[in-house]
Design goal:
alpha/beta, Rossmann fold, Coagulation Factor XIII, Chain A, domain 1, 23% helix, 35% strand
């Protein structure tokens, strides 16, 4: 029995004289117990597809067949009243979900315990932090286990502990035989949680199949697209008038290039891939023994690594004038997947004042099949034995 079937789904929106097809010719099926992941860029149609499956939106053509009861978590905050207490919101939402008074009383304890709000359950919701607010909404939403569960990017609720708790609970629902359709930008979760994946691109199915194959194809597509974006114009900072550019002006940074092992420019690299950062500059006046530096930051500001030629005792007795170039090469880029930024600096010999400094103006991205946690990958081996 196939509990979820969608055939030739087309969803159109009309605004004034412009018609937009958010979904075009979508067709797929999911068996009982399948976990179907939906991936794709923002605007690709993921949320629209889940709204069509849930019945919130109706397709302009095509049909959807769902066998069994359907639950959805498309917006965990929907229906919560900020001026009601957590307790009152639970009762109100459960009534809207069709529970009887007896069922609500039976479920209240479970919802309260799962949300871990403690005494805050009897406080007005406007007093909650955003994490507490999301925990309440999520706990209510998962208080029943339907035959089909539709989930739209909601596993970022609360702190890391609560996220893990929610994910473990969803695994139990999956293992009980519930069919789940799961949309997310977290590719590692999709890969580990789902047994099928659909990649939506511009409202159509670009690819469907085994998670590892589809996710890798999507990552390659993203890598190529972001590479083109970040390389145009090549090697220029995002904004040359940016306040994060300073220095005496005796040196001008002209361009940077990010190079792979073949000397080709790109801006998306894999963990452990060879990467070189090359800086083209011009010394407007003779500069004696400058300090060249390159630093890498994660895009949230975490300082990853920042060597310079003074610390490494390189080029300490040379005077530079006119065009020049310096570079650093990482034979194995140890960074784990994420978005990163580069700072470029040319300082005096003692690294006291800058001739030119561009702070976190150059972007690159790291992707990987490695599913480790943290900032960097470190070679390691395990052993275990009974004592």
């Amino acid at each position: 029995m196939k509990p979820v079937i969608a055939e030739n789904i087309i969803k159109s929106y009309r605004a004034r004289n412009t018609s937009i097809e958010a979904l075009r010719g979508i067709s797929f099926s999911a068996e009982k117990g399948d976990v179907l992941g939906i991936i794709g860029d923002n605007g690709s149609g993921k949320s629209t597809l889940l709204k069509v499956l849930s019945g919130i939106s109706r397709p302009t053509s095509g049909k959807v067949e769902l066998s069994g009861s359907v639950g959805s978590i498309l917006d965990v905050s929907a229906g919560l009243n900020a001026y009601f207490t957590g307790r009152a919101n639970i009762y109100m939402r459960c009534v809207l979900m069709g529970y009887s008074k007896k069922e609500i009383e039976e479920k209240f304890g479970w919802i309260s315990d799962f949300s871990e709000l403690g005494s805050f359950i009897d406080q007005p919701v406007y007093m909650y932090s955003s994490g507490m607010f999301m925990r309440l909404g999520f706990s209510i939403a998962i208080s029943s286990v339907p035959d089909i569960f539709l989930i739209d990017e909601v596993l970022s609720v609360g702190d890391q502990y609560f996220q893990r708790k929610c994910f473990e609970y969803l695994k139990k629902i999956r293992d009980s035989g519930t069919t789940i359709v799961f949309s997310s930008h977290d590719l590692s979760k999709v890969k580990t949680f789902c047994n099928k994946v659909i990649w939506l691109n511009g409202g159509v199915i670009e690819m469907a199949g085994e998670p590892g194959v589809v996710i890798q194809a999507y990552m390659d597509y993203t890598r190529e697209k972001e590479g083109k974006l970040l390389e145009s114009p090549k090697g220029l900072p995002r904004d040359l008038s940016h306040s994060n550019i300073w220095g005496s002006g005796e040196v001008r940074i002209k361009k940077i290039r990010l190079l792979d092992k073949d000397g080709l420019e790109k801006s998306v690299f894999r963990t452990n891939e060879k990467m070189a950062i090359e800086v083209l500059f011009s010394a407007e006046t003779p500069i004696e023994s400058p300090t060249f530096g390159i630093a890498i930051f994660r895009n949230d500001g975490v300082y990853c690594y920042g060597p310079n030629t003074r610390l490494d005792n390189k080029y300490r007795d040379k005077t530079w004038k006119g065009p020049g170039r310096y570079s650093i090469t990482y034979d194995r880029l140890a960074l784990l997947p994420g978005s990163y930024q580069i700072s470029i600096g040319v300082y005096d010999k003692e690294e006291i004042f800058p001739y030119a400094f561009h702070h976190r103006l150059y972007d690159f991205k790291v992707i990987s099949e490695i599913e480790d946690h943290g900032l960097i990958f470190m070679d390691h081996k395990w052993s275990a034995e009974e004592l």
